[in-house]
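#structure-requests
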Amino acid sequence: MMNVVYEDNHIIIVNKQSGEIVQGDKTGDRPLSDIVKDYIKEKYQKPGAVFLGVAHRLDRPVSGLVVFARTSKALTRLNKMFAEGEVHKTYWAIVKNAPRTSEGTLEHWLVRNEKQNKSYAYDHERPNAKKAILKYRTLSHSDNYTLLEVNLMTGRHHQIRCQLAAMGCPIKGDLKYGAPRSNPDGSISLMARRVEFIHPVSKAPIVVEAPVPNDNLWQALAPK
């Protein structure tokens, strides 16, 4: 069941479930973009093809907020806003080990390996590396896990997954980046929790939050 958390004439924001793909890929699985198009077509009784622009993506095993454009005007402006860092996304991640300091800034140079679909973090510049910066702070912890809030200063391939692992705090369930075991549903414990931006057309401030996943650990760690 698709979860729409915000919509107007120009944009629609959906809470993606882990396992869904935002855009079509080589798997041939039905992407979220097609599901949203069908929703718009049915709800507004639209004849013919429905326009839907993809302004950004989330990795398949990640859940949380995805912003789509319903008009070409909104898409052009959203693309520019994402490129220039004017869309502020806040992520929550459940990690295996507590970081050495409760909050901080991570800076690495990331090298993407296309064949492995994985990025590698280095603490110095290397050929083909891109600088990656994020800020994190601890929200809560249990005996075995810590909930971090993460804000990206740059947008790199698998950035949060790679940088937290490089800090010694792999995300729960993320086998690719060093978690000891997978989550039963194949997800990783990372969600796009909040998105804030100025509406590309109306110029009104938009702040949207995704609900915390209906999972015992997420519910236990989420600040009340």
